[in-house]
Amino acid sequence: MAKPPSPKPPKHLHSSDLRGVAQLATQATASVARIAEGVHQSVWSSLGVPGGKAPGQTRGITGLVYKSVHGVTRLLGKGVDTLLARLQPALDAAQTAPAGSPQRAAVLAALNGVMGDHLLESHNPLATPMTLHYQGETLNWQALPPMPHATGKVLLLIHGLCMNDLQWHTQQNGQVVDHGETLAATLGYTPVYLRYNTGLHTSQNGHDLSNQLEQLLTHWPTPIKEITVLAHSMGGLLIRSAFYYARQDGLRWPGRLKNIVFLGTPHHGAPLERAGNWVDVVLASTPYSAPLAKLGQLRSAGITDLRYGFVLDRDWQGHDRFQRKPDARQPLPLPAGVACYAVAATTAARRSTLADRLIGDGLVPLHSALGQHDEPQRNLVFAKTSQWIAYRTSHLGLLSSPEVTQKIVQWLTPASAPGQGSN
């Protein structure tokens, strides 16, 4: 009987992925043990049995058992990580996996969106650094690749939560849809794609993007005359944050920024995150379920920033991001001197109170995507001709809609550009 062929390792995985997953497995084991101990002590506390030195800890023999579990887990995790760290250079040299595999990029993007802040804090190799990409190559300021077709009109494309730069290339009914490539072909833009850790606070990424764009301006092979930004979802909050901090730091690139097109950006937050915040409250309402609230707190800083659409450091610094509280953001208008356009989507066939406030595109309500707010100081004023609603379209459908492409081309074509958005 013939032996079945030995399974081959997935081509899209790297040796560093193995090390990162091992770290996560170790941390998950420790977290589950802490939750189990917390539930255990909650039950004992209801019977009047005192706990250990810290809240959620048991005492006596039971406490010793949990302490042993924690200790063994840490030792095993440290040993595995040390071994894989030593083996990683040899594995990297032998591997043939393409660096830009769409499968690997999609998995890493989702993982970073959910817990990217934790990955960075724990120095996990799965954490995604912020990089700019041109024609599939990462831009290294010390050694730029040949760029004979680069123009002075740069189009920066910024993806949304749990996504990556490769997902701008989509299909609809067998037809390829790529907003960036169409703008390059019709209007002479040079597309540059941002890849970043969407699990970090928006303002953290804002500082980083601001510096990246200053480097782009310095090292681009031809003088940059214009920067236009096409931002999907969270990407719109990111470019507003970057512009604010660039102005504060006196950087040069804001002077080249001409247009920003926002696609489904939750300028005033997304109700799904606010609904998720209720999970924290419900789980913490009884002593038996309180330890399980840690599961609800797995959401990254990037996700909790979407509760109200945070863009500045002061919006989140000094606050417990899992504590339910009213919207206390610092009002921030649209970037001054920049033409701003907003595309909002709704899965409904026409506008209504229900469609605007509750349905929206499935993730972002219409009023949030259009920058509209009941408080005048928070209202983002887009010119009437700079707003457009895509009906029967989902949040992700904005990336694969030919109609959205046509509208962007219409707005950015000089002869038909309606002018700058109001602030």
Strand element count: 10
Tally of separate domains: 2
Structural class: alpha/beta
Q: Over all CA atoms, what is the radius of gyration? A: 24 Å
CATH class of the largest domain: Alpha Beta
Strands of the widest sheet, in order across it, are 2-1-6-3-7-8-9-10
Shape: globular
Proper CATH architecture of the largest domain: 3-Layer(aba) Sandwich
Kindly estimate the percentage of residues that lie in beta strands according to DSSP: 5-15%
Pfam family, one: PGAP1
GO molecular function, one term: hydrolase activity, acting on ester bonds
InterPro entries: AB_hydrolase_fold, PGAP1-ab_dom-like
Domain GPI inositol-deacylase PGAP1-like alpha/beta: 150-284
